[in-house]
Amino acid sequence: AMTSFFAATTGILQNDLKRVIAYSTCSQLGYMIFACGISNYSVSVFHLMNHAFFKALPFLSAGSVIHAMSDEQDMRKMGGLASLLPFTYAMMLIGSLSLIGFPFCTGFYSKDVILELAYTKYTISGNFAFWLGSVSVFFTSYYSFRLLFLTFLAPTNSFKRDILRCHDAPILMAIPIS
Q1: pLDDT given for residue 141 in this prediction
Q2: Which residues of the chain register pLDDT less than 70?
Q3: For residues 31 and 132, is the Cβ–Cβ distance under 8 A?
Q4: What angle in degrees, to the nearest 10, is found between the helix axes of 41-68 and 86-100?
């Protein structure tokens, strides 16, 4: 749970699009170690498999955004891309909802089981791990929605030349994303 907490707090402070998603991956690896720490190895592998699929979507969507923005990765220099990149925005939204554990998305099933199993460990360390994991879920939600807001919903902070050249993913990039 400490790994998940540390990576989530580090992800909050990042402004680089790929770094936010990379620290998010470290946080998810922390959940896997968290599950191993409470002796639930099969749940750890279950989260690993779910993570492989729900994390691919934000990474591929981030690549599409970086491609569209002429290799810009700083989220502070983006904004207003939801209308210019609607497909990429929809895919990033779906990936972020799964990442935060929104009900009926893949991340919900594996994260919820890990937290539920920690909650049922009636020990001080199990209780501490549960609360630390729960705070990590909150931080994950925060930086995921921060990424969505700064990249797609905030007023644009980019140069006009970059916005004019901005385009949604070509079909060869869109197929793997979808």
Answers
A1: 92
A2: none
A3: no
A4: 160
CB 126 within 8 A of CB 59: no
Tokens in use for 150? 């700064």
According to the model, what pLDDT value does residue 89 have? 92
DSSP the chain: -HHHHHHHHHHHT--BHHHHHHHHHHHHHHHHHHHHHTT-HHHHHHHHHHHHHHHHHHHHHHHHHHHHTTT--BGGG----TTT-HHHHHHHHHHHHHHHT-TTSHHHHHHHHHHHHHHT--SHHHHHHHHHHHHHHHHHHHHHHHHHIIIIISPP-S-HHHHHH--PPPHHHHHHH-
| Residue 41, pLDDT score | 93
Nearest in space to 133 (alpha carbons), one of 21, 54, 43: 43
- Measure the CA–CA gap between 129 and 137, rounded to whole angstroms: 12
